[in-house]
């Protein structure tokens, strides 16, 4: 199988795909949407393998980001890609989506619901036109700059490791101070 790299990507709200991009033909979108409907709603990262491809999902605050990758790409490039897309998506649309959710009235009548559906459909269409090319740019960047992707991943892992060590060290320090206070009866030593 030839190495295609990153094949298909989308950004979705719940089970509604808002923007997508692919440069290849195939049933990737159909399989991805089927997987999307079976995903748990809690935030996290999930990977499914099928026919030499990995379907990598990142769920965050009700938004789902997916990239279908050739298995030969590994796991690090798709995960870094998803993080980049999530950050870019939140930076571009986070405030407007938060405002739209605040304006939703659960007691709206049917006409208002129809108008709301039309508004959301047009927003999703607009997002696909605007963010689809952004997905393409991120896919191309991740495939043409693998060293930068690995460096970002190493930096992120190093920071997580440092954070864990600092938390453990802080907890040990607190235990030592509490023992010292208990043994000395306060600050009387």
From TrEMBL:
It is found in: Endomembrane system. The chain crosses the membrane at residues 164-183. PROSITE patterns: LONGIN. It comes from the Eukaryota. It is a single-pass type IV membrane protein. The keyword Transmembrane helix applies. Keywords: Membrane, Protein transport, Transmembrane, Transmembrane helix, Transport. InterPro entries: Longin-like_dom_sf (IPR011012), Longin_dom (IPR010908), Synaptobrevin-like_transport (IPR051097). GO terms for biological process: protein transport. Residues 6-117 form the Longin domain. GO terms for cellular component: cytoplasm; endomembrane system. Belongs to the synaptobrevin family. Involved in the targeting and/or fusion of transport vesicles to their target membrane. PANTHER family: SNARE PROTEINS, VESICLE-ASSOCIATED MEMBRANE PROTEIN 727. This is Longin domain-containing protein. It comes from Punica granatum.
């Amino acid at each position: 199988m030839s190495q295609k790299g990153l094949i298909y990507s989308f950004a979705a709200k719940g089970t509604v795909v808002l923007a997508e991009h692919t440069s290849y033909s195939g049933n990737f979108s159909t399989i991805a949407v089927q997987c999307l409907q079976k995903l748990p709603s809690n935030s996290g990262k999930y990977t499914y393998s099928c026919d030499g491809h990995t379907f990598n999902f990142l769920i965050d605050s009700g938004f789902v980001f997916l990239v279908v990758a050739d298995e030969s790409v590994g796991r690090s490039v798709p995960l870094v890609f998803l993080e980049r897309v999530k950050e870019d998506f939140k930076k571009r649309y986070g405030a407007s989506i938060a405002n739209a959710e605040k304006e939703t009235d659960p007691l709206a009548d049917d006409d208002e619901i129809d108008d709301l559906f039309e508004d959301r459909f047009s927003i999703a269409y607009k997002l696909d036109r605007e963010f689809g090319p952004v997905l393409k740019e991120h896919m191309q960047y991740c495939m043409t700059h693998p060293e930068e992707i690995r460096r970002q991943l190493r930096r992120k892992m190093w920071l997580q490791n440092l954070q864990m060590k600092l938390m453990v060290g802080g907890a040990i320090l607190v235990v030592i101070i509490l023992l010292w206070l208990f043994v000395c009866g306060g600050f009387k030593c």
